[in-house]
Structure formats: structure tokens, C-alpha cells
Amino acid sequence: ILICFLINTINAQESLLVVGVATDETDGYKRYVRSLKQNGLEYEILGLGEEWKGGDIKRQAGGGHKVNLLINSLEKYKNDENKVILFTDSYDVIVNDNSEKILSKFKEFSSKIVFGAEGFCWPDETLVDSYPVVADNEKRFLNSGGFIGYASDIYELITREPIKDEDDDQLFYTKMFLNIPTREKFNIRLDTKSEIFQNLNGAVQEVSIFADENGKIELFNNVTKTVPSVVHGNGAAKLDLNRLGNYLANSYSNNDGCVSCKEDTIQLNEEDKNQWPEVTLAIFIEQPTPFLREFFQKITKLNYPKNKISVLIHNNEKYHNLEVEKFFTNHESSSYASIKYLTVTDDSSEQEARRSAVEECLKSDCKFLFSVDSTVHFDNSDALKLLIEQNRSILAPVMKRPGGSWSNVWGAVSSQGFYKRSDDYFDIIDGNILNVWNLPYVSEAFLIKGEVLKKIPVEFNDETMDPTIKFFTTIRNNDFFMYGTNLHEFGHLINPDGFNTSKIRPELFEIFNNFEDWTKRYVHPEYNDYASGKVKPQVPCPDVYWFPIISDEFCEDLITMMEDFGQWSGGRNNKEDSRIPGGYENVPTVDIHMTQVGYQQHWLHFLRKFVQPMQQKIFIGYYSDPPRADLNFVVRYRPDEQDHLTPHHDASMYTMNIALNIPDVDFQGGGVRFVRYDCSVTQTIKGWAMIHPGRLTHYHEGLKVKGGTRYIMVSFIDP
Ligand code: UGA
User: Fold this and answer.
1) 584 has which bridge partners?
2) Bridge partners of 189?
3) Closest by alpha carbon to 283, among 324, 332, 337?
4) Is the dihedral of CA 330, 333, 338, 341 positive or negative?
5) What's the rounded Cα separation, in Å, for the pair 382 and 273?
6) Which H helix or E strand runs over 299?
7) H-helix or E-strand containing 150?
8) Residue 689: closest CA among 562, 568, 603
9) Would you say 506 and 290 are in contact if contact means Cβ atoms under 8 Å apart?
10) Is 62 near ligand 1, meaning CB less than 6 Å away?
11) What is the distance between the alpha carbons of residues 479 and 457, in angstroms, rounded to a whole number?
12) Cβ atoms of residues 46 and 70 within 8 Å
């Protein structure tokens, strides 16, 4: 009992002090200190504000400066046998446990000083054989990025021999460990199973994360089955630590969701927009991009005082000149603080343009540079405000191409610097886990603080890399973190692949690649009310169903496309028709088929997505998927050409007939008459479809057009 009592008293007196070195308050340093605070750890940071004399340790050996700083700071504790020092690097370390846990693990080693271990014998590989052998699943070699021991012992150990600031600290400690008398005197041990120290370099595949019963995220070493307390992204594992740091140290908790995302944020006052920070908004149109008109509309609608925004646009595509000019001449644009336009004729490359944007921002002492590519659609008009309020050095709104796996963020990066899919990539882009994510690369849209731009060499030029990848690689090498937030829905990305601007109305063809944007532009705004059953289709004649389906713009673009193509068939003067399977049309119209303008597949997709759901509501019990239609065509009626169509049946199960323009405005007369019911529809509505059975009951005729030109779009479905 007495012995137990004594041990307990000694334990009670022991205290843990974390000591880290950081000459600069980098983002990594801030993360480290946050992790110490989250775990209630007492700590001392050495070297803040001093010049780093430990050499370029990213590339070569060095780091002796750390030892000398430690010697100075430990002097005051050199006789303190109860002070336990946990010494760690700081830029690439996260501590995930409190002092109680760490001390109890340390005690289990029954050692005076315990060093972390790793799988590489570095910096002197010739020392491999001098190391004691360990079990296959353990790490054999000393790493100096983390160790723990009694202050008095550590002080005695590290003052035995001098070390120069530029000498290598890892080699310094290694030699002491490999010197058997020293090792035995201090009972130095290596944490070969990562009980306390997890060095990630070469071991990333060996770890995973899990949530404990309180929702706390822990690191698990799958090989040694340990739950380490100190996680070190040594050497090449910096980005892996960044990824794990999204969860560790209560950044994220299974019970509370993201915790760090709520820290250090600011609020912009809606009542006093004069106080909102100045932003340089740089827009890059580097490739032909569909739906640019909508892009600009959304930019204009951003909830941000325009007099606080200076705009710079780089347009690399002649095709888009008109749209960009429209944005300039738009009366709302005059409210921006300034607008600068780098056009195609200025001949500035993407690299130069991106550099100019940074320079503009720095020149005007802007608080933020908001870089936005033409593929970025801010459906949320608060996007810019929300990003600023998150208050991070570099922050991207996480956005994706709808329905796909393409986004503007990378979860990981390969050793060659290319895209690599991280385990949590889909959690990030699909919003399954909400967080402000530390990421290796962001693009297309990001907000960066002016103060960061001042601190880094701005570099976009590199023949081997995309300019933004180059830019962010430089930023990363300068110890800044970049984040992506999926806390809000900001909008979506456009897929510009294969956008063919040689077409007269190229967006019409985007039904596959940009379905949602296509739908917004081209489907009738009231269509959903009918498709959802909220509104019933009209029935102007027996079994003739009438409902809105395509937008005015679709009607107009379709007419433009056909007129531009111009090869109208001969109508009633020419019943031979090589375009149709039989080569002969009994009741021919003046028309152009979708196949002739390369739109057949697009139209069939449209039928499947928008017509079939309506058909199933109308002709209940009839099901065909996908709807088939060989003949889809635009018909032109006019007095001097073909002005009517004699009664006929259609070669279809059902026919769809969409009016593309307006009676009494664009043409006089016209319409359709169903002979059996003696029922006519003459006041057709632009963008509305009429659906009726084709083959038997609905014998019908096209009524005479007396003036102007009438256009309709016809499909014979399931012939
Ligand atoms: C790796 C090891 O993990 C280090 O323990 C060892 O000191 C180093 O190699 C070496 O032997 O040269 P690494 O993780 O690759 O270090 O490098 P950093 O994390 O970039 O630097 C180590 C630490 O030195 C930083 O975490 C920070 O605590 C300190 N440091 C470095 C500064 O305070 N200022 C600097 O400018 C650079």
C-alpha cells in the first residue's frame, strides 16, 4: 500500500509540457497549436520570429537549430525530474490526445526517453545494420520529429555534444541511440509500434481513421493495431497529414460535425455594406464555354456591393466577344468599381492574364482576389459573401459538374503531381461530410487573401504544368494551406468539353454534357407543373393532349438552326424522299429532318426525358422505353410554298406536334383539324406540344396558312 501510495504521488506530480519549434506562424504551425489547445495541453513554442538557421530541410538534411533552441529552453528544467517533455516538429504535426493519455503511454515504455520511429534510415543509410532488429510489422529507424522524456534526462542527453544549427538533428539523435552505452544509460527506446508517434512517411497506407464512442476521430495503425497520439507528416507525407488533419484534433467529430469550420470566421453586416472588403474579381474565359450568358447573369446577381468589386476579364475566345461586350454594356456593370478587359486581340496568354489579375489586386491593395473561370455557375448569389465570411487564406467553393465525379478540388495528389482520388473524395464533392477541407489543389473558382499574395512569389509559368497547378504548387511550397468548403451549395460547374462553336446555336447540342443548364434554358418554365401532375394537360379535341414543353428560346433557336441549314424538302411537289426508310412520302411537307442537322440523337434524348413522362400520364398503360422515332422534323408552311397539308394518318403510335411560333403574329391562318371529330386547333401556343394517337383514329389535316410563315416540330413516335 505504501509503495502504491508513493507511486501515485510521484505520478500526480508529473506534468507534461509540449515543446515545439516554429520560426514562422505558418498555417501548419496554427494547426499544430490548435491541436494542442483542443487537447488542453500545456505548451511552449521556441524560435518564433527568429531566423531559421536549420537549413533547407525540405530538400536536405538539417534541423540542428531545433536542438539548440531546445537546449536553451530546457535549461530552466534541467533539474526537474517530474517534468515530462514532449518535443515535436510543428509545421507538420498534429497532437490528438490529452496529457493523461500521452503520459500513461509513455509510462508503459518504462524508459527515460522515447523517440518516434520510421521505416527509412535517414539521413545516413549506411547505419542500417547498426540498428537493433525489430519485428516485421514494426519500424526500425529513429525519427527526430517527435520524442518524449524527462526534462532532466533530455537536457543531459542533448548537451553531451555540441551540434551546429545547420547540422542534422536526426543524425545527431541517431548517433546517440546507436551508441550502446548512451542508449542504455538513458534507457532510450524507439516507438517502433507507433504507440505514441505515428510518422506518416512511407506508412500512409498503414493508417486509417475511426470514430470512438464519443465521436472523436482517432488515427488507427492497422499494422500494429495502435492508436497513436502524435501524427507527423514527415518528408513526403505533408499532404497526407493535411488530409487527416481535416478530422483529427476535433477538427471534425462524428457527434458535432465540423468543429474547426466554425472557428475564426467573420460576419459581413448586411446593414452596412460599405464596410465589406474590396475584392478583385478576375474572370477567365480560356476556352469555348457553353451557357456564358447565364454565367454573367449569375455574376451580376452576386449579393455583394458592386462598388467594392473591381472586375478584370480575360477572354481568350473570339466566339465569346459579343457576350462579354454585353456584360460591359449592361447598365448594372457600370456600378462596379472598375472593369478591365483583356481581349483576344491583346494577345495575352492565360499565364499572363492570371498574373495580371494578381498584380491588379496587389496594386489596389485589395483584400481578396476572387478568381472565377467561365465554367463556374454561382447558383447561390451569396457565394462570395459566404466565402469571405469563412475567413481562410485560400478558399474554394466545392463545386461539381452535376451528375458526375468532376469537381474543382482534388482530395489527393500523386507523387508526380497529378490528380489522385482520395478515399473521402466523394464525401467532399457530394457533401456527405460537411467541412472546410484542407486540400492539395483547387481550381476554377477560389478566393485568396491579398495578404497571402503579398507573401508568395506569384508563379504561373511552367511548361510542364497547367498555370493554376503551378500557382497552387508554389503556394503549397510556401507553407500555405488551401481549403475547399462544402458547407453551402454554391452552384455547379459547366462541362466545356466538345462545345462546338461552329454550330449556329451550339448550346442546343448541350443536352448530354450540360443537361441541367440545357433544361433551364430550353425546357418550358411551366413544364414541371404538368410533368408533376400539378396541372393537367388541356384536351382541345378528343384524345388530343396539349401542354407546354419547350421554351421560346428553343423554338427560336430551332427555327434559326433549320433556316441556317436551309435544305428544305420539296413538299407536295416531290413525293420521292431518300431521307426516309421507304424513300417515298405520301403526304410530304416542306421540312428538314433532325438527322440532317445532326440533332437526331439529341432529340431522341429529349423525347425520353421530357415527352415520355407526359405520354405515360396521358395514354395510361402504354409503355415504351426509350421512345423510338425515326422521323423528327421541322415543317414550314407559307402561302408561296406549301400552305396546308391534306388529311392523313401518321405512321406512329402517337404523334407530337410542337408549335414553334405564334398565330396572328408570325403567320395568319394555320392550325390542325381532326377530321373524325371535326375539331380544329387554330390558336396554337408557341412551345406547347400536342400529342395524339397517330395511326388510326386521328385522321388530320394541316390548315391553310394565309400569310407569314408557320413552323412546327413533329415527331412520329413508336412508328
Ligand atoms: C524531417 C524530420 O521529421 C525532422 O525531425 C528532421 O528534423 C528533419 O527531417 C531533418 O532531419 O532534417 P520534415 O518533416 O521533412 O523533417 O521537415 P519540416 O517539418 O519542414 O521541418 C521540421 C521542423 O522544423 C518544422 O516542423 C518546424 O518545427 C521547424 N522549422 C523548419 C522551423 O521552425 N522553421 C523553418 O523555417 C523550418
Assistant:
1) 576
2) 114
3) 324
4) negative
5) 13
6) helix 292-300
7) strand 141-150
8) 603
9) yes
10) yes
11) 12
12) yes
Three-class secondary structure of residue 261 per DSSP = helix
Choice from 21, 57, 60, 174 to test ligand 1 binding pocket (greatest atom count within 8 A of CB): 57
For residue 102, list its beta bridge partners: none
Mutate which of 60, 73, 91 to test ligand 1's pocket (most atoms within 8 Å of Cβ)?
91
614 pairs with which residues across the strands? none
C-alpha cell at position 272: 452596412
Q: Note the pLDDT tens digit of each residue in 503-529.
A: 999 999 999 999 999 999 999 999 999
Cβ atoms of 51 and 120 closer than 8 Å: no
Of the candidates 711, 672, 669, the one whose C-alpha atom is nearest the C-alpha of residue 692 is: 672
Amino acid making up residue 126 = T
What grid cell was written down for 284?
477567365
Q: How far is CA 315 from the centre of its chain?
A: 23
The values of phi and psi at residue 605, to 5°, are: -65, -40
The secondary structure of 551-610 as a DSSP string is -HHHHHHHHHHHHHH-----GGG--B-TTSTTSB-SS--SEEEGGGGT-HHHHHHHIIII
What type of residue sits at position 228? P
Q: Which residues have CB under 8 Å from 716's CB, separation 6+?
A: 629, 630, 631, 632, 650, 651, 652, 655, 694
Does residue 47 line the site of ligand 1, with CB under 6 A?
yes
Q: Which of 225-234, 352-361, 526-535, 546-555 has the lowest mean pLDDT?
A: 352-361
Instruction: Determine the distance separating the centroid of ligand 1 and the alpha carbon of 385, expressed in angstroms.
Output: 37
Q: Which of 698, 590, 697 is nearest to 641 (CA)?
A: 590
Contacts 24+ apart (CB under 8 A), 354-358: 354/282, 354/284, 354/314, 354/460, 354/467, 354/468, 354/471, 355/458, 355/460, 356/312, 356/314, 357/280, 357/282, 357/312, 357/314, 358/453, 358/458
pLDDT, one tens digit per residue, over 389-439 is 999 999 999 999 999 999 999 999 888 888 899 999 999 999 999 999 999
Q: What is residue 515's three-state secondary structure?
A: helix
